[in-house]
Each structure stands twice: as C-alpha cells, then as structure tokens.
Amino acid sequence: MSHVATRSHGDDSVVSLKGSVSFFAKLVDAVVRRVQLRRAQLHLEGMDDRLLNDIGLERADIHSVVWRGRKLSR
Questions:
Q1: What does the pLDDT look like over 50-63, one tens digit per residue?
Q2: How far, CA to CA in Å, does 68 sit from each of 23, 31, 54?
Q3: In the chain, which ranges are continuous DSSP H helix?
Q4: What's the CA gap between 29 and 16, in Å, rounded?
Q5: Which residues contact 44 (CB under 8 A, 6 or more apart)?
Q6: pTM over cut 0.70
Q7: CA gap 63, 12 in Å, rounded
Q8: Mapping DSSP to helix (H, G, I), strand (E, B) and coil, where does residue 38 land?
Q9: Tens digits of per-residue pLDDT, 15-29?
C-alpha cells in the first residue's frame, strides 16, 4: 500500500506526489539508459575487428568505452 503525504493549512490540503513521481521518473530514465548502453555494446561486439579498428577501438575496450566513455585525442 502506498502512502501519500498530506499537509493541512486551514482549508487547503496539499498532496505531495512530486517526490514519488521524481523518483520513478529517474528510475525509468536509468533503466532506459542501461538498455541503450547494452544495445550499443552488443552492436559493437557484433562488428568484426577490422571495422572496430577503423573507428579506433579494440575488442577489449568495448565495455569500457560504452559504459565509461573515452577521452578523445587531439
């Protein structure tokens, strides 16, 4: 059962769902982001070594690059 916090100010009743909505929105965003990153990882893992080399990656670097990013050389 969920709990909704209410405050009463005279005739006003303020129902605060903002915190709960924010939490669930962040949770959904985090799940969507993880799915996107996993798909990117699988896509890169499906490439042959020649293609990976063309984009400057080695197979051993895929996980790190997808999940942590990489510094661009200038």
A1: 999 999 999 999 99
A2: 24, 16, 20
A3: 18-45, 49-54, 62-68
A4: 21
A5: 52, 57, 62, 65, 66
A6: no
A7: 53
A8: helix
A9: 467 778 889 999 999
